[in-house]
Amino acid sequence: MERRKGPSQKRKDSRPRGSLGVPTIVEPKASNIVEPKARTLKELREMARQRGIHGRHRMGHKELIQALGLSPAPAPAGAPEPVTVPPAAHAPPSLRAFGETRLVLMPVSPYWMHAYWELTPENRAAAERRLGRSGALVLRVYEVTGDEAREAFDIEVSPDLGNWYFRVDPPGRALRAALGLRDVEGRFAPAIHSNAAQTPSPGSQEEGPVQWLRVSGGEAPVPVGPPRPADAALRAEVERELRQAGETAPSSVSSWAGVPSEPDRRRLDTP
Amino acid sequence: MMMDRTGGLALVLHAHLPYVRHPEHEWFLEENWLFEAITETYLPLLDRFERMVSDRVPFRLTLSLTPPLVGMLQDRLLQERYTRYIERLIELADREVRRTRGAEQDLARMYRERFSQARDWYLERYRRDLVGAFRRLQEAGALEILASAATHGFLPLLTPVPGSVRAQVAVGVAQYIEAFGRPPQGFWLPECAYYPGLDELLREFGLRYTILESHGVLHARPRPVFGLAAPIFCSSGLACFGRDIESGKQVWSGLDGYPGDPEYRDYYRDIGFDLDLEYIGPYLPPGGNRVRTGIKYHRITGKTDRKELYHPGRALERAEIHAGNFMFNRERQIEHLAPLLGRHPLILAPYDAELFGHWWFEGPHWLEMLLRKVSFDSKVVGLATPSEYLDAYPVNQICQPPPSSWGNNGYFEVWLNGENDWIYGPLHEAGRRLEDLVRRHPDGAGSDETARVLRQALRELLLAQSSDWAFILTMGTVRPYAIQRVRTHLENCLELCEAVRAGRVDRERLETLESRNNIFPNLDIRACLS
User: Fold this and answer.
1) Residues of chain B with pLDDT under 50
2) A204 interaction partners in chain B (CB closer than 8 Å)
3) What is the ipTM score, two decimals?
């Protein structure tokens, strides 16, 4: 069993501020993000039912959000909390669950990472046995540097089958995650580890060192010298292009399917 | 051609449609995507390219024809259905000639002539083989055709199952060699979506270059000294060309792009919506829903609902002026860049092929005028393909591009958000199961039937992976159709995997699926082994 101090304590103790991918609080902007507050009472009750929360029928909107752990616990001073986004709509029933415990991370954009998972009852029970008591389902996110994975933060998640978007700041970080149970003392029993995934570094990168490569025919690429640093005029030109690229948001050039929909389209029956 | 001028212009057209083919329905609306594109884009482009070749215009153009599009163009059933489609359109245009008078009647005649021409070209000139026509243009040195991923899969989001990414590349390249009779030089990344490491895989398949969205090159590490005006090399040796910004805006900008000119034909005003159902109904999908027919009598006019009648002569004049303007601007750009670089700058301008003719009716004319003007009139800009540029400049800077795409905001959120995220779990799971089974039956071991089932399972998986479905779910255009496609193909794939696992193959079911989802007849299942 993995023994750890509570994550918030650990964060305060061992981490110089700004050195890690510790997310800072920023209001999510993307339209796909569903704030806990925006969920309907019915949706929250369903989530509560899935987690077997007692007394859920008597709870209001606020209490349900709290009981589900959707509102972040008050953070100790100086420790920024991750802004997370609860799971969105699920797959058609036939593709929802596969009876395999999985956890997959995928980058969305420089500041957002997506995780999806499935935890089987057997694997949940095994994690609980290792913990020796019940615990909350937690997505523990690690920052990967070289061979080292350092714990960055926890996200309390609700269902055994779901997905989550979380903000990562600063961007350009390699992350891994584990899904497991965390008890009241903060001890963590992982049920599964994810793949490694990296968010993109946005914006222009530093200049140099300028290296050249010769690629011709079927031969292996050959480095060639000497380095040729850019002169001032060329550098200014590239900076102009960078500004231009910043002003022009890329627009998906297509697709046929992007045609405004024909009104009153017929419904399709499944073949 | 570029070398005796100051700089190069690489025009790139990306031709792609998702694989839509429904033998189980007599009539299927989404198959019209292909038929409209054949009539309005592929045939007019082929005709103009061939005319330029016979006029000895030394033009160069780069074109991607994605594997699903190639597969549909080669498919017998869709070829039959296209013939039926164009015959009906000719019949409708004929009725229009009788219904209309005056200037409107002239337009109806124009459509009747165009549609009849399309039918004649399709059946007689090309004998239904448009892929062969494109291949001959490549052999003539006019076109450079790019390979692409098997079903336009969004590769960065398939990486959790490396075999899925490999299958997309391997199957795409294999089909290319079959269809075009030579190995590809360049690879069109679906949605320009790149992640570090993908270059190594493309190199394994002998590819020389790919194309990225502007920031994919500009934000590479270290910052590229030539910016967008020259390609960069990944350390693997794959060249990445970045999309030029200015030339993109001139054509694509909804505000001041060429296709929005008031003289150009209006795409949205269409007799499918304008005329009485009693009259137009027989030419609309069963059920009486209105759709566009392709017969449109109005010009864009301006921001008004009172559209004026279209005037083809004036519109073609505009297209010529716009072609001249485009060339003029590229010349100024090149004159500015060349002394800074100390070598030929290259402006790479990719566009959706279907923009030309389908959306922008005058687009094929604009393109032909531009290609002719640049070939004969310019002393500054010369046409080039990316591989010609690499032949001339085999030494380029080593930079590592960041993950990027040409979707909204430049990363992956168009293909991964609350509208479509549910597809990835099942896509990955099906990919894992299939890869696992193929590993255990390396040559479909045991019986031919196992190999057949695994091949069909891979077809279904690939069809489910098209980036188009995730895109449609985000745009909300034909959502039920996209959901149905993802779902059906994944269910089929999982069902076939289960049949192999349990050693129980339903022969009849297999044959049904084989004839229904028949893409890639010569699929090699080992493609999905990572």
Assistant:
1) 445
2) 218-219, 223
3) 0.93
